[in-house]
Amino acid sequence: MKILLDPGGCPWDRRQSHATLVKYLREEAGEVACAVRKKDWRNLKEELGDVLLQVVFHSELARRAGRFTLADVIRTVNSKMVRRHPHVFGRAGKLSTPAQVLREWAKIKKAEKKRAAGKKA
């Protein structure tokens, strides 16, 4: 992606922004859903790659603007999964049903959103 966005890279890619790429991200996510519905595992592999390309593209645009990097995105999602699974990573008692997990996930997510809103104020 770095090469594609460099001055000698792809003219189309170089003209893109987060805003112009949103429609492609939505399109690719829809194609993932379609492949899952059809149980088309070969196509699912390809479509997941297309979604990953969108993540890489957005991350490279953000890196160039000094906002964040792909490594930051990966660290963020890793931290989020650990935070939202305290029953697995040792900070809470074990949850034995999917319903319990969903309730705990929603509670943690709500608390995260509340903290984030407080930081913005």
Q: Roughly what percent helix?
A: over 70%
CATH class of the largest domain: Mainly Alpha
CATH topology of the largest domain: Helix Hairpins
Please mark out the parts with pLDDT under 50 across 5 or more consecutive residues, or reply none: none
Largest beta-sheet characterization: none
Brief digest:
By secondary structure, the protein is mainly alpha-helical. It has seven helices and no strands.
Question: Which structural traits does this protein have?
Answer:
Helix Hairpins; 2 domains; 7 helices; extended
Provide structural commentary.
This protein has about 120 residues and is mainly α. The protein contains seven helices and no strands. Helix 3 (about 20-40) runs antiparallel to helix 4 (about 40-65). It is extended. The two termini are about 35 Å apart.
Question: How would you summarize the topology of this molecule?
Answer:
Elements: H1 2-5, H2 11-14, H3 18-38, H4 41-64, H5 70-83, H6 86-89, H7 98-120
